[in-house]
Design a protein that fits this description.
heterodimer; A: alpha/beta; Rossmann fold; six-stranded parallel β-sheet; five-stranded parallel β-sheet; 30 helices; 25 strands; B: alpha/beta; Arc Repressor Mutant, subunit A; 2 domains
């Protein structure tokens, strides 16, 4: 029973697949063997049917090629205007994707899936336009000929002798929701061609002789039918899988295609694709870059990049590994990824070299167990890896923008040979001087020393030259018979051979050491760069800082000008607001950036989207969200698109994204905390106000209405009492409101200190005068330092502090008890204390006193909102000072505040 | 009551206008009202008032502008009403020529006292200085002989201290801003040196007040200026 239950992982995959498909539009491809089989016609017929079903059908673009029957079908259907592009004097009519997205029909007809768009279009290829339409949830009908399928491109080129450059990745075809085969037997097609229904007569004649040969047509038809059949087969398998019909595939097949920098690579990829399709397997394409391969010319590396992209287009996952040993890396990868089939090229080393130096294939065969290995041979050229052959292949279609050649530096190279000759001659000189004292074996050693030196410094070529030259000189001068190249004893041949081999071996070793050191240095530098940036990013406090760090590091690593663009609150990408830096890029194309932001895909130069742009645009993501866009103007595309550079850039982008999200989260947390705090304060404020304002209000309203109602009956004394009550309560309310307003102003940070030099005595004098009534005859003892101490403060504010402290003291101490004000001047500070002789502060409440809405004792009579001391603290802290409360040992409380005085008093010419 | 003093109240808030009208009428003043600055200036020209009460927060124009407009042709006393915590507005108004200020909310008694001082001052500017001698409590300043006595004992003052005291004495009872005093005592070039004034004021207090921290007549108007109490 259990055996027939579907695998949960597969079920999940199915659900995900269905979900993804539900949101997207559906793609229907009208598939034919060749032009003229009636795809457009069939497509329009289908469109009319949908229209008859009352669906919103729109023609985005149709190529009728002047065919009357087809044109007749257009009647009554809405046709979107095309985008007209002036290209080198001719006007091109291109599909207008923006108009289509804006129009948003249910179904749109866009002919010619394989079409290549005019330069400077958003996407280079029409299938990419269609992809975007589908992503936007629009159903698309389109047409495709079999020869345009990427994986068949090779085969059809071989069959027909005509290679088509406009290709469509197989993934597009495979992901289509529906394929409708439009079939017409070759004879009938030829009849239609001759009747001029496909091309105009002259063209038709040419066509019949070339592409439309009957043999070709039959082959193409077969391919189209087979392709369709394969797809139907795949659908059948899907169906069986979905409905738990066991069991065609026990194991998930995984194929690994290993490519190298030779012309087999492209064939390997295409073959891998065919195997993968026929086995319905996942497939990976891997390129292992060994230290030797890292020394390859830039063109060759570009070629590899192109092949990897091709593999991606064909639906493969691609990987670039860098490892010292190719075989080992492949075996490790195949274990990690559960590979059960490996596809490699036939070993290129033959005979004794293969036997001596080994080959990757042999290593794979002996070490990779449970893996089937497929070898692909090269068809015509037995020496598949001759450099000329593959360079020319790669040059045929360079990566867009990757044409720049690295300038070769040959100067040092030739100097090595010169040195080789010079050193050998020196060795000969030394030998010549010592010839009588040394045995021949030791003379050889001197030459060998020279060869070793040349090998270590100047590489293989010069060391071979040094060996050969050394052997020649040795033979000529030091081996009997002298002054002749003849060798009397065959033993010397071994000496000579040994010297040659030692030279070559050492130079090879040195080259390896050098290149490994270079690779290691490169890696170390990369790690250092990454570390430097990540450390700076980790310390960054703001998004602005992250951007600055990122732009600087990107510049130093990629020599590019960069800018990081963020969306505004409406999701529209805008130019940055901050000051630009030297490394900043100006004038990035916002529309490209917007596209990148919306689609989370890179775009711009060297990519498949908007390659006309000068810059490259990368999405910056974190946690599956696109945060912004990096626009990067490279000095050299290679510096960005080489596999290791791209990996580095990826890491950079990830780190930048992480840093940004970290800062955003921190800000979010801060805001949340502030909101909670504000909420708590608002609640206390509301309850404080509702109590403390209502009480006096109740008294005022009560007294005033008594005065009003009792008109004529109240005694003069009563009237006066009531009026007095009203005035007192109103004043109390006024104080409360002043406090609340002061606190609000201080909190809002709108208060600007008006600091000036004031005599301390005057401040205290003002306070005591203002509080004269409130102090109700209490004794306030003031003790100030000698002279006229000056303080640099905002006098009005500090007066407020003293007033609040004194009022507080009056409120909480027995009537008539004494209050003390003392001050001490220090070099850079003044300390002012207000002491009382009351009951003191309840234990442990000293710090709480300065919190907003805190009251030491909840006694209704001694009312205040609990803001007085909070205001004191806010003012003192605004001055950069500190306020504390303590109980005095001799009884009573003392409130002390210290204000820093960071300025020296003004110099004044006084009369005395 | 034909020669009852005429007061114009320029204030846009009706309840305040009403209580001022009621209160002042009861005290025997003739009150005219205006609710905008423009209206107030016209009233001031037409009614020939003895005093103007002006709210600084008018809807149509700055209070300072109203003061300047009135000062252009008249020296009648102007008392300002202003909201709290706007010292600079008060200073501007006083510098523009206002005589006194009151901060809202204020008690009616206080207003009445200020009105009386202002009116007295307007009628007889040197009322409290008789025969060149100013006297209040135990302080006596003989302007003619330049002698200052405290409890009949002569107090020695430096020239600047004396000039400062004289400026305050001549405007006794009125608020003088720092700028006004600096200009009178030191001259226009000392406008920025308010700390000079504060130092000399402290010195004066040390010499004239029994307890400089609880002054009896040399009062500080916080953030605005000084006033010699009479």
């Amino acid at each position: 029973m259990n055996d027939y239950r579907p695998d949960p992982d597969q079920l999940l995959a199915r659900v995900e697949r269905d979900n993804a498909k539900a949101k997207r539009g559906r793609l229907k491809i009208f598939f034919g063997a060749a032009a003229g089989v009636g795809k457009s016609y069939a497509m329009l017929l289908a469109a009319r049917e949908r229209r008859a079903e009352n669906l919103d059908v729109v023609i985005g673009l149709i190529e009728t090629h002047g065919r009357k029957e087809t044109q007749a079908l257009l009647k009554g259907l809405e046709v979107l205007p095309t985008r007209q592009i002036d290209y080198k004097g001719t006007v091109l009519h291109e599909f207008d994707i923006d108009a289509a997205l804006k129009r948003r029909p249910a179904i749109i007809i866009v002919d010619e899936l394989a079409h290549t768009n005019a330069p400077n279009s958003r996407h280079p290829k029409r299938w990419q336009d269609i992809h975007e339409l589908i992503d936007a949830g629009i159903d698309v009908y389109t047409a495709l000929n079999v020869q345009h399928l990427e994986s068949l491109n090779d085969d059809i080129g071989q069959i027909s002798g005509i290679r088509v450059w406009e290709t469509v990745p197989d993934t597009v075809f495979e992901d289509a929701d529906e394929i409708e085969l439009v079939d017409l037997p070759p004879d009938e097609l030829l009849v239609r061609l001759k009747e001029g229904k496909i091309y105009i007569p002259q063209q038709a004649q040419q066509a019949i002789q070339h592409f439309f040969r009957k043999g070709n047509l039959i082959a193409l038809r077969e391919l189209a039918l087979r392709q369709t059949a394969n797809r139907v087969d795949a659908q059948m398998l899907d169906y069986r899988e979905d409905h738990a019909i066991r069991d065609v595939w026990q194991v998930n097949e995984r194929i690994l295609v290993c490519i190298g920098p030779n012309m087999l690579a492209e064939r390997l990829v295409r073959a891998g694709k065919r195997v993968a399709v026929s086995l319905r397997a996942q497939w990976l394409v891997v390129y292992v870059e060994t230290p030797t391969l890292q020394r390859l010319s830039a063109e060759k590396r570009d070629g590899i990049l192109r092949i990897l992209r091709l593999a991606e287009q064909l639906g493969a996952e691609t990987l670039t590994l860098s490892a010292p040993d190719m075989g080992e890396a492949i075996i490790k990868l195949s274990r990690e990824r559960n590979i059960n089939k490996i596809l490699v090229g036939k070993p290129t080393r033959r005979g004794w070299r293969r036997w001596l130096l080994g080959s990757v294939v042999d290593e794979l065969i002996s070490h990779a167990h449970n893996v089937n290995i497929y070898l692909l041979g090269s068809p015509q050229n037995p020496d598949g890896d001759t450099p000329d052959a593959d360079i020319s292949l790669f040059r045929k279609r360079p990566l867009p923008g990757l044409q720049q050649r690295a300038a070769a530096n040959k100067k040092g190279y030739y100097a090595g040979y010169g040195w080789a000759v010079f050193i050998t001659l020196c060795s000969a000189g030394i030998d010549y001087l010592l010839i009588d004292r040394l045995a021949l074996a030791n003379l050889v050693m001197v030459f060998l020393l020279g060869v070793v030196f040349v090998a270590t410094r100047f590489g293989c070529g010069p060391s071979v030259l040094a060996s050969v030259l050394g052997v020649a000189i040795l033979d000529f001068l030091f081996v009997p018979p002298y002054y002749s190249f003849a060798v009397s004893d065959s033993q010397y041949l071994i000496t000579l051979l040994t010297m040659l081999v030692v030279g070559v071996v050492i130079s090879n070793l040195m080259i390896n050491v050098h290149s490994q050191a270079k690779v290691a240095a490169h890696r170390e530098r990369r790690a250092a760069v990454l570390y430097a940036m990540s450390r700076e990013l980790a310390n960054s406090q703001s998004e602005e800082e992250v951007v600055r760090i990122a732009v600087r590091h990107l510049h130093s690593e990629f020599s590019s000008r960069n800018v990081i663009l963020f969306p505004d609150s409406n999701g529209r990408i805008i130019y940055p607001q901050q000051k630009s830096m030297i490394e900043s890029l100006h004038g990035a194309d916002l529309s490209v950036a917007q596209w990148v932001f919306d689609h989370n895909e890179m775009a711009g130069q060297g990519t498949n989207t908007l390659p006309g742009a000068e810059e490259i645009y990368f999405p910056i993501c974190a946690e599956d969200k696109v945060l912004g866009v990096l626009a990067l103007l490279p000095v050299n595309l290679r510096r960005v698109f080489l596999p290791e550079q791209q990996k580095l850039l990826d890491t950079f982008l990830r780190q930048i994204g992480q840093a940004i999200i970290r800062i955003r989260l921190a800000e979010q947390a801060k805001i949340t905390q502030m909101q909670v705090e504000a909420e708590r304060l608002r609640n206390s404020l509301l309850s404080a106000i509702s109590h403390d304002l209502r009480t006096p209000l109740a008294t005022i309203i009560g007294s005033a209405s008594t005065l009003l109602e009792g008109e004529g009956q109240l005694q003069a004394q009563d009237k006066r009492d009531l009026s007095r009550v009203i005035v007192d309560e109103a004043e109390r309310m006024s104080n409360l409101i002043n406090n609340i307003l002061d606190m609000a102003r201080l909190d809002a940070g709108v208060v600007e200190l008006n600091k000036q030099w004031h005599p301390l005595e005057e401040i205290i004098g003002t306070v005591l005068t203002r509080l004269h009534k409130h102090l109700a005859g209490r004794v306030v003892k003031v003790k100030l330092p000698e002279g006229i101490p000056m303080v640099f403060v905002d006098a009005v504010m500090i007066e407020q502090v003293l007033i609040n402290l004194l009022e507080n003291a009056v409120r909480y101490t027995p009537q008539g008890s004494q209050l003390d004000i003392t001050a001490e001047m220090y070099d850079h500070a003044v300390e002012i204390a207000v002491a009382d002789y009351g009951a003191g502060i309840p234990k442990g409440r000293e710090e709480h006193l300065f919190e907003k809405f805190y009251q030491a004792r909840h006694e209704a009579a001694q009312s205040g909102v609990g803001l007085g001391l909070a205001i004191c603290r806010a003012i003192v802290e605004a001055h950069g000072g500190r306020i504390t409360a303590q109980n005095r040992p001799e009884g009573g409380a003392v409130f002390t505040f210290v204000l820093p005085i960071n300025q020296s008093p003004p110099v004044m010419e006084l009369e005395e | 009551m034909t020669n009852a003093p005429v007061i114009i109240v320029i204030e846009d808030d009706p309840p305040i206008r009403r209580f001022l009208r009621t209160g002042l009428s009861t005290q025997g003043f003739t009150v005219f009202e205006a609710d905008t600055g423009k209206q107030g200036i016209i009233e001031a020209e037409v009614r020939k008032p003895d005093l103007v009460i002006l709210d600084l927060g008018l809807p149509d124009m700055e209070g300072v502008e109203v003061i300047k407009a009135i000062r252009a042709w008249s020296a009648i006393p102007i008392i300002i009403l202003s909201a709290r915590s706007s010292e600079q507005h008060k200073i501007d108004a006083l510098d523009a020529g206002a005589d006194d200020y009151l901060t809202k909310p204020f008690g009616f008694g206080e207003l009445l006292a200020r009105i009386r001082v202002a009116l007295r001052h307007a009628i007889r500017p040197m009322e409290h200085i008789q025969a060149d001698i100013f006297a209040t409590a135990n302080l006596k300043v003989d302007l003619h002989n330049r002698v200052v006595t405290l409890d009949d004992e002569e107090v020695h003052l430096t020239p600047i201290q004396y000039r400062l005291l004289v400026v305050l004495v001549k405007q006794a009872g009125r608020v003088l801003t720092h700028q006004q005093i600096l200009k009178e005592v030191w001259g226009p070039s000392y406008q920025e040196n308010a700390h000079y004034l504060r130092i000399y004021m402290s010195q004066l207090r040390q010499k004239l007040e029994a307890d400089p921290t609880q002054p009896k007549f040399l009062l500080t108007e916080s953030g605005v200026g000084y006033r010699l109490k009479i």
